[in-house]
Design a protein that fits this description.
GO terms for molecular function: carbohydrate binding; metal ion binding; polypeptide N-acetylgalactosaminyltransferase activity. Helix content is 32%, strand content 20%. With 427 residues, it is of the alpha/beta class. The N and C termini lie far apart (65 Å). The protein binds uridine-5'-diphosphate and manganese (II) ion. The site of manganese (II) ion has 4 residues, from loops.
């Protein structure tokens, strides 16, 4: 049995070798794949993808990345018997250069035995070969939608086709960094109700430089259901003696996470009446917390993502209408009386149709989920932010939290600081 263990440890570190890659790439014909839709001199390099296509094409599909983790991460050991995962990547008209780099970074930086398969869900892109040609690479499968479905139904389709017990979702313009997967799988193995996200590093949309993101951030939102990153409070930072420890987050950014497949199914997957893009991260985040799970950011897992300023693709029903439909469904099903804050922050949502929500309300009942008030009190928090200055109302309380000088002051927002947490009671 000792021999088996040693063997397993050896397998853990193996990914595809350079020599193997040479053969694979010859077979795959990387050059002709990339050449088919190349940027042409004179074209606006931003017009198709809303990032610099030209720069993306100058960067090799297997470029080296700086290891952006805290140095202490490299001393951690992971369970050699982690089970493998299905990686689901949905895309609509992704640039071939970024799509290929996403897949290659996964194949290069993940122990082979941890990848059950990579399912690409082609959400009715113009050229079916963007996806199909990639199936020449190891582990890669391709599902193509007959109609544009949007990322929510596409992810569900990928999840339903998955063969592994663990699901990993990625965007189609990512680059995974060194040892990104074991820390996520380990966390989900320890606690299958935990949904684990990496720290999302920034791939600059103009230069494609790979930039480390802060690992002192967590996800937050405002009442219009607009996602934002928030600094951990000074208190929370001080309490974090170990920089490799997971960070609980009220909300996940949405595109990159690992979840146990049975847990995903039991919790009701996604709200498949949501279209195209947006809002699904609030829905799944509220649902996970309120129905007995948790959301964490794992600082020792790093994945780069190209953040851009606008969507390069068409929303058939219009960008604003779609965002309102998706977030309104979220507010109506999950936010209880607090949906009033959503409607006052987003008055345009009031008259808009959002379809039938009975199924999702039934789901919430049958899972016996907690209230939105419980979620705010325990997992998130309400603060009072001055919109023009972005400063917050703060109670000048001694740090031990007992002695209060009963003064209200204005200070920079530290959203999880106890002195800035306020309740809005309904009566
Ligand atoms: N996507 C999709 N169908 C759509 C819209 C988006 O499959 O109708 C994919 C998109 O290609 C990407 C992921 O969903 O892989 C997230 O979209 P995007 O990157 O535009 O969102 P962002 O990361 O900017 O929030
Ligand atoms: Mn994206």
């Amino acid at each position: 049995s000792a021999a088996v263990e040693v063997n397993a440890v050896c397998v853990t570190v193996a990914s595809i070798s350079d020599a193997e890659w040479d053969d694979l790439l010859e077979e795959f014909e990387e050059k002709s794949y990339l050449n088919a839709h190349r940027w042409k001199p004179g074209q606006d390099p931003y017009s198709l993808y809303a990032f610099n296509q030209r720069e993306s094409e100058r960067i090799p599909s297997n470029r080296a990345l700086r290891d952006t983790r805290h140095y202490r991460c490299t001393t951690l050991h992971y369970d050699p018997y982690l089970s493998s995962t299905t990686i689901v990547i949905t895309f609509h008209n992704e640039a071939r250069s970024t799509l290929l780099r996403t897949v290659r970074s996964v194949l290069n930086r993940t122990p082979v035995h941890l990848i059950y398969e990579i399912i690409l869900v082609d959400d009715f892109s113009e050229d079916p070969n963007d996806c199909l040609l990639l199936t020449k690479l190891p582990k890669v499968k391709c599902l193509r939608n007959k109609h544009r479905e949007g990322l929510i139904r596409s992810r569900v389709r990928g999840a339903e086709a998955a063969g592994a017990g663990i699901l990993t979702f990625l965007d189609s313009h990512c680059e995974v960094n060194k040892d990104w997967l074991p820390p996520l799988l380990q966390r989900v193995k320890e606690d299958p109700t935990c949904v684990a996200s990496p720290v999302i590093d920034i791939i600059n949309m103009d230069t494609f430089a790979y930039v480390a993101a802060s690992s002192d951030l967590r996800g937050g939102f405002d009442w219009s259901l607009h996602f934002k990153w928030e600094q951990l409070s000074a208190e929370k930072r001080a309490k974090r003696a170990d920089p490799t420890e997971p960070i609980k987050t009220p909300i996940i950014a949405g595109g990159l996470f690992v979840i146990d497949r049975s847990w995903f199914n039991r919790l009701g997957k996604y709200d498949t009446a949501m279209d195209i893009w947006g809002g699904e991260n609030f829905e799944i985040s509220f649902r996970v917390w309120m129905c007995g799970g948790s959301l964490e950011i794992i600082p020792c897992s790093r994945v780069g993502h190209v953040f851009r300023k606008k969507h390069p693709y068409i929303f058939p029903e219009g960008n604003a209408n779609t965002y309102i439909k998706n977030t309104r469904r979220t507010a109506e099903v999950w936010m209880d009386e607090f949906k009033l804050f959503y409607y006052s922050a987003r008055p345009a949502a009031r008259g808009k149709s959002y379809g039938d929500i009975h199924g999702r309300q039934e789901l919430r009942k049958s899972l016996k989920c907690k209230s939105f008030k419980w979620y705010l009190d325990n997992k998130s928090g309400t603060h009072l932010e001055h919109l023009a200055s972005r400063f917050c109302v703060d109670s000048e309380m001694a740090l031990d939290g007992i002695e209060s000088s009963k003064m209200l002051v204005i200070s920079p927002c530290e959203l999880s600081a106890h002195t800035q947490r306020w309740e809005m009671p309904f009566s």
